[in-house]
Amino acid sequence: MKLKYLYLKRVFDVILSAIALMALSPIILIIAFIIAVFDGLPILYWSDRSGVNGKIFQMPKFRSMKPDTPVVATDLLQSPDAHMTPFGPFLRKTSLDELPQLWSILIGDMSFVGPRPALFNQTKLIALRKDARIDQLRPGLTGLAQISGRDELSDEVKVQFDEKYLKNISFDLDLKIIALTFIQVLFGKNVAH
């Protein structure tokens, strides 16, 4: 059942990401223009992330931080707000900085739902996920940990949510996670930076 669903999930990801990219292209272009004019180039920030079976891939986001920002998880920065671009807080609060990841979903590096891809240097989180076999899942734009605390969760707690998702993966659970993600984005919940 899970293998069959994972195949259908991939088909769903391709179709939905293609539709979303086309439908949201005016918004994507407007955001790109605003970043270029007010924050300068580059428009996108490509970060090395851990994907399926630990394979590193480059994940795009609209750039919300200054180019000289250290490459660490935002919660590890001394003063994250000092590294933000003028438009950055709005992008982060609304999660619009994540829109370029629709491309990652389309090409197969990511899925709409799965564990959020760890930065290449988040070795503890990567190791915990590997031990729990979570690294076999395609990373997601959103996931169970995202709707359960996001920036506020420790690595251990994130992995507990990832394990729960792995054990209970289903169409119903994915729909629930997507619906709850939309609600949280609308109300700006669980976004520390």
State the gist of this model:
This protein has 193 residues and is mainly α. 52% of the residues lie in helices and 10% in strands. Strand 3, helix 5 and strand 4 form a beta-alpha-beta unit.
Structure description:
The chain is mostly helical. The protein has one domain (2-187). The chain has eight helices and four strands; from the N terminus they run H-E-E-H-H-H-E-H-E-H-H-H. The protein has helices at 2-39, 80-83, 88-94, 101-107, 123-131, 144-147, 155-168, 171-187, and strands at 44-50, 56-62, 111-113, 140-142. The strands form two sheets. Strands 1-2 form a two-stranded antiparallel sheet. Strands 3-4 form a two-stranded parallel sheet. A hairpin with a 5-residue loop joins strand 1 (44-50) and strand 2 (56-62). Helix 5 (123-131) runs parallel beside helix 7 (155-168). The radius of gyration is 16 Å and the shape is globular. The termini are far apart.
Distance between the termini: 38 Å
Principal-axis shape: globular
**The biggest beta sheet, please?**
2 strands, antiparallel
Total of DSSP H or I helical runs spanning 4+ residues: 8
Number of beta strands: 4
Number of domains: 1
Radius of gyration over all CA atoms, rounded: 16 Å
Secondary-structure class: mainly alpha
Give the fraction of residues assigned to helices: 40-55%
- The percent range for strand residues is 5-15%
pLDDT < 50 stretches: none
For the residues shown, what is the average pLDDT?
90
Which sequence of SSEs, written as H and E, runs from N to C? HEEHHHEHEHHH
Strand order in the largest sheet: 1-2
